[in-house]
Write a structure and sequence with these properties.
The complex is a heterodimer of chains A (203) and B (257).
Chain A: H1 2-45, H2 51-65, H3 68-76, H4 85-108, E1 114-124, E2 127-135, E3 142-151, E4 154-162, E5 165-166, H5 167-181, H6 186-202
Antiparallel strand pairs in A: 1-2, 2-3, 3-4, 4-5
Helix pairs in contact in A: 1-2, 3-4, 3-5, 4-6, 5-6
Chain B: H1 2-27, H2 36-64, H3 67-91, H4 95-109, H5 128-134, E1 143-145, E2 149-151, H6 153-164, H7 167-174, H8 178-206, H9 210-226, H10 236-246, H11 253-256
Helix pairs in contact in B: 1-10, 2-8, 3-4, 3-8, 5-6
Classes of the chains: A alpha+beta (203), B mainly alpha (257).
Chain lengths: 203, 257
């Protein structure tokens, strides 16, 4: 009996803080998304500073908010293991360039839209889905969901879902297509990435 | 709890690695596009038509047309589609949504379909391709149809059936209102293109393989429409591979190598 009570008490001591931490996570995740979106709008909407300077700030912010390496590896899928270590390194560098420019472009067209964070719910042990919508001046709002991983030091975004279209899933299938058309070689993807990021930078 | 988790993750690591390896074998056919060479060819022709004709008209329409008229055109097109939407609501057994479609139709008839006076009931779309999906029929291989664009056998049949069951079409035919048939088709094409201009421009700017990106986006969008935009379940690939990357604190050897 004593054993049992002791067991329950110690179980409670271990579990209670963990349980309350879990309950707090959705709220914290919502705050995280809200804060990041506001910062991004502030950086990219500040037309006073020069383009390259703005982009550098945006990149820094982006790397703080997104787990770029995990996304990059997911997107490369099974081809990650086919790549040499040098290819993996170059790929991750180019992938970062690509998505930083992709999102920077989207934010640079910012014209007064607002983000309403709607809900957050755990999807998995340490993955949450934060749902939000972008309110536009013209047209209905756009559904925008954020898949977020909970880490020791806070949160990291691992996927962005726009109107039910996952960026990661789309890019993954797109990259697989590029590699298959390039004879199954990861090198063909790197060539395409190099060309693309170069073109995007000149804009 | 913390100790339990670290034990769990130690136990889970080989399982995740195994899931990762077995998941890979099935990743090969993800594209489900056996007619890819032909599809890419038709896609290129469609793109040329879009660049030369559809996009410029849609872009001009978007810029020049007053917002009130654009809204009225959209309202009228939605209004004319009501019978087809209602038929598909019923075929899917969606009684509540069928009621909504009917109620909206009666309200908006008072405004000749030009003004949406039933904004208290949100508009929803349906088509026979979605009905077939609800009935459990598989989408089949990816197809790019001439002029129509991304599709598959299920959605192709859906378009034909929707055309055939549409009373507006038969009334137009019987009264020889050719203008209504052609005018409505043109208006549908242009207004649909207006809505997608920002997204396709962005995608062309950022994608490495525009065709492949459109193919995947088409599938994801259709899946969402079939679910009636209900909460999206986590894609299965996430459980096969994504979790291994984002949940583990330390990359596992099986993943990095």
């Amino acid at each position: 009996m004593l054993d049992r009570r002791l067991f329950l008490a110690s179980a409670a001591a271990f579990c209670l803080p963990a349980l309350s931490a879990r309950a707090a996570a959705p709220e914290a995740a919502k705050t995280f998304v809200r804060g990041l979106a506001n910062e991004a709008i502030e950086v990219m909407g500040n037309k006073g500073s020069a383009g390259p300077e703005r982009l550098a700030k945006f990149r820094e912010l982006f790397k703080r908010g997104f787990d770029v390496d995990a996304i990059g590896r997911f997107v490369l899928g099974r081809y990650w293991r086919d790549a040499t270590e040098a290819e993996q390194q170059e790929y991750l560098r180019l992938f970062e360039d690509l998505i930083v420019h992709t999102y920077a472009g989207r934010f640079s067209e910012y014209s007064g839209e607002t983000l309403t964070v709607l809900d957050a719910r755990p999807e998995d042990d340490r993955v949450l889905l934060v749902t939000s919508q972008v309110n536009r001046t013209a047209g209905p709002p756009i559904r925008l969901d954020w898949r977020i991983a909970e880490r020791e030091g806070g949160f990291k975004i691992v996927d962005v879902v726009i109107e039910a279209v996952s960026m990661s899933v789309t890019q993954r299938s797109e990259f697989a297509s590029v590699i298959q058309r390039g004879g199954g070689k990861v090198a063909s993807l790197l060539t395409a990435l190099r060309d693309k990021t170069k073109n995007m930078q000149t804009r | 709890m913390a100790r339990a988790r670290s034990l769990m993750s130690r136990l889970a690591a080989p399982l995740v690695a195994a899931a990762l390896l077995s998941g890979c074998a099935s990743m090969n056919d993800e594209a489900r596009d056996p007619f890819e060479p032909l599809n890419r060819h038709i896609f290129a022709v469609n793109q040329a038509i879009d660049v030369a004709l559809v996009r410029p008209i849609a872009s001009t329409y978007r810029e020049v047309m007053p917002a009130e008229i654009k809204k009225a055109v959209n309202n009228f097109l939605n209004y004319l589609k009501s019978p087809v939407i209602l038929a598909n609501d019923l075929l899917q057994g969606e009684w509540k949504r069928a009621g909504e479609t009917t109620e909206r139709f009666f309200y908006n008839t008072l405004a000749l379909g030009l003004v949406d006076v039933a904004t208290h009931i949100p508009f929803h779309d349906e088509d026979f391709g979605q009905t077939l999906a609800v009935w459990g029929i598989a989408e089949g291989p990816y197809l790019v149809l001439p002029l129509i664009g991304p599709s598959n056998p299920r959605d192709g049949i859906g378009i034909a059936v929707d055309w055939f069951i549409d009373p507006v079409y038969w009334i137009s035919v019987n009264n020889q209102w050719d203008g209504l048939i052609y005018g409505r088709t043109a208006a549908r094409v242009i207004t649909a293109r207006v809505d997608t201009i920002p997204a396709t421009d962005d995608l062309e700017r950022t994608s490495l393989d525009y065709y492949a990106a459109i193919r995947d986006i088409y599938r994801q969008r259709r899946a969402d429409e079939i679910r009636n935009r209900a909460t999206r379940p986590t894609p299965r690939v996430f459980f096969d591979q994504y979790r291994a990357l984002i949940i583990q604190e330390q990359p596992q050897p099986a993943v990095t190598n």
